[in-house]
Please model this.
Amino acid sequence: MVTQARPIDGAEGYRLFLEHDGHIELDEINEHLRGLGLRELQPRSMTHFRKLQRYGYKSYLTQNRLDLAVAGEAAWSDDMRAQYPEVRRPFPGLLLFDARWHSVTVESLGTAAASVSGEVTPTAGTSVVLHLVATGIERTATVTRNDPTAGRADLVFDTSSSLRTAGDDAPFQLVLTMPMAGDSENLVALADLLLRLERLVTRLNLGSEEIPRVASVSKSSPLAIALIGDQSLPVIGSFIVAAVGVRYAWYQGTKTKYEAAGIQLDNEQKRRKVQQEADAELLSALEAEESAEAPILLQDFEVKGLDKGAANSMTRRGFLDACRAVIALPVQLLAESSERDNDGRR
Model:
């Protein structure tokens, strides 16, 4: 079981990182930390160290503190696709609608959405442009919710221009395959699968600064979706595989209960119903371990590179969010990750 690193471990690791001007491997840093009796760091720490170095920090800041320190000045810049998907620190902005600019306060800001408040806010469905005063950066958005009494509006950005995406030369590939026979071969089923997959990727806190690129989608029985991206993809693949194993075991337990009652699961509708019931029971059992000091079931989902966190911590809650997202995926989904060569080929 991986022990979560502390700020003191990160601080010593970053000191050594700067001492070698970044030209040092994670294994070397961890060997140094072990020699001092400190805890080892995860691969995502190297990404954080490079970000600290890029912003000129000579001493260590945690990821959260770094994000908050630069959010108002560098929100939406290419370098700031932070580990935390949303920053909640008010700062000034302008909102373009009704053919003029309106002063607003940006209450929360994420890579795909924002919430603003002001004396006048646009109605739901209105197309707007949000301007950040500190940087001059602008993003097209659509109002999804408006509360005129509170003077608050929620925005969703145009995702085709607002999200930083992995390049064609990304080092890892994740191929997801799933049978989609008969009635499931339709637009709604495919769109639902992609939405559930997106929820999993965005809920995993893996230090990624860019979202995976969809390299290909093919429908030739089975459906195959190829994603390329950073080192988070193998973790996502392992997480999906672990979840499938746990869900299958819970399905078998629920299936046995039905068969003991004389109910035969002799068609797909009944089997799907039993799977949904098993998933619901599994989720309830997982959520009961949020405050557990020594969780048992959560360990079945823990994979290398993904920390379940301490009891009642933000990390634990984030891990549970990821569990909910992976359980929402079709149980027939298969995941296979691989490393690509320098030319971006598998």
Remarks:
- The chain has a mean pLDDT of 82.
- The chain is about 40% helix and 20% strand.
- Residues 232-260 form the longest helix (29 residues).
- Residues 198 and 325 are 9 Å apart (CA to CA).
